[in-house]
Each structure stands twice: as C-alpha cells, then as structure tokens.
Write a structure and sequence with these properties.
160 residues; Nucleotidyltransferase, domain 5; five-stranded mixed beta sheet; globular
C-alpha cells in the first residue's frame, strides 16, 4: 500500500478531540485545533470537520490515539477510541484509519507546551492538540524503526 504524504492525528476525549497534522517524510507534526464533541450532534460536527480537514490538508491517513493501560491492556477508554475509529473508517472510506498507542502523550504534550512557552491559561484548550501531535510523532518514529503493529502489551494497532 502506498504511504500517504500527509497524516491527521486525533487525541480523543469525552468532551474534546485534539487534532494535529504532519508529514512522515518530513517527520514533522503540528498541533492544529481542538474540536468540541459535547452535545447530541457532537460527533456529527466532528466528522464534518474531519472531512473538511482531510480535503484541505490533503490527508491520506488518520491516526487515532489508542489509550491502552500502562500494562498494555484495553480498558473502557481504549474501547471508546476503537469504536470511534471504526465509525470514522466507515464515514471516510477513502482514508485509512489506524490506531496508535498514546500512553504518556499528555505528559509529553505538557513538556512541549513548556518549551513553546504556552501560557498556563491557554494550556487546557491546547493540550489535546499538542497530545495529538505527540501521538503522530510517535507513530512516525515507530514507522521509521520498522516496529511491528503490536506494542509491548500485545494490543493491535493495525488498520481498522
């Protein structure tokens, strides 16, 4: 399968979804925005916005953070992310959707915001987009190193 040039990463939360875009060739990821998924039409709005970004940013694949437990097992949050990824794959059939381990992405996002000088008042609204960028950079690193699509705990990060 041909490698996409541009990727979109999602850091899913109950109320917000952080977005980042990047390029595997350049090994760069940029926090984009945070989407509100609150309310009855939350995911409908989110899917509409994702379709727009896929087109505008020329996205070839979407990487959804898979929040497995530290021991590699899948808990309720991981099941929620996997269900979202399956629904996204159905909605955006032409785009490959993959899961990727997101352990410690929020911690790394906080360190990145420190380096970028993001003010404390802005952190809550930007953390999810930075976490999505961390997920994407980690995904690129795994691709670079030719890692298998199983993490240490055995959770599949394969295509959905």
């Amino acid at each position: 399968m041909k490698r996409p040039k541009r990727y979109l990463a999602l850091d899913l939360g109950d109320r917000r979804i952080g977005l980042a875009a990047g390029s595997l060739e350049a090994r760069l990821a940029q926090p984009l925005e945070v989407l509100d998924r609150a309310g009855d039409e939350g995911d409908v709005r989110v899917f509409r916005r994702l379709r727009e970004l896929v087109k505008r940013e020329d996205i070839g694949a979407i990487v959804v953070g898979d929040p497995v437990n530290m021991d590699g097992t899948a808990g309720p949050r991981a099941e929620m992310s996997r269900d979202f990824a399956r629904r996204l794959q159905k909605a955006l059939r032409q785009i490959r959707v993959e899961l990727h381990d997101e352990r410690l992405s929020s911690f790394s996002a906080d360190e990145w915001m420190d380096r970028d000088g993001v003010k404390p008042a802005q952190r809550k609204t930007r953390r999810d987009a930075y976490a999505a960028a961390v997920i994407l950079l980690d995904y690129f690193e795994d691709k670079d190193e030719g890692r298998t699509m199983k993490d240490e705990g055995g959770t599949m990060k394969d295509e959905i």
